[in-house]
Amino acid sequence: MFKAADLPEIVPIFPLPGALLLPRARLPLHIFEPRYLAMLDDALKTRERMIAMIQPAVHGHGGEDALHQIGCAGRITQFSETEDGRYMITLTGISRFRVEQELSGFQPYRRCQVRWEDFARDLGSSEKDPAFERPGFLQLLKRFFDSRELSTDWETLEEADDELLINSLSMMLDFQPEDKQALLEAPSLGTRRETLVTLMEFALRGGTQEDLIQ
């Protein structure tokens, strides 16, 4: 368990569109670009073993290299190396953060100075969603999966606790990067579940991303 005092002021940034990491959830990643191999090597040398996932901002919001202001950092909890020098790793989400500024330096990857105070709840135990009506949610999810010809282990979903179910679906389902950002920034598990329901219902009605933004 991380405490607030354990969180570093500067983190290496992995900007990856559509890749969402949430606290206490696990994100598998395939690392092969030289700059991110260097980032991984450096991260493994630190006590925190931390990499920060963040969404690139859409063009027009600060330029081509702009980042969203909120991301989520994870600790490297599993990694294996392939024969050709690539890595398969798993990040376990620790806490969201807010970007203060991007730093320049000699590293081939990007780094940001961040602050964590706005997301102190992320360091606690699993979050609950008292208003969660699981049967209706699973019915909607089944319609959504059927519309995309997806399959899953429904028994596992029915037994998963609230946070694991909602956060895993938020990370797994194929929504647009801006939708993923909205799921990340949700202030509570209940709000994230409501956002997830809205996105699935909208997709089932055949709406487009542009319609949703408007």
TrEMBL record:
InterPro entries in the record: Lon_prtase_N, Lon_prtase_N_sf, PUA-like_sf
Query: Could you tell me which residue ranges the Lon N-terminal domain spans?
Result: 11-204
Q: Which Pfam families match?
A: LON_substr_bdg
Q: What is this protein called?
A: LON peptidase substrate-binding domain-containing protein
Native organism is: Cognatishimia coralii
Provide the taxonomic classification. Bacteria, Pseudomonadati, Pseudomonadota, Alphaproteobacteria, Rhodobacterales
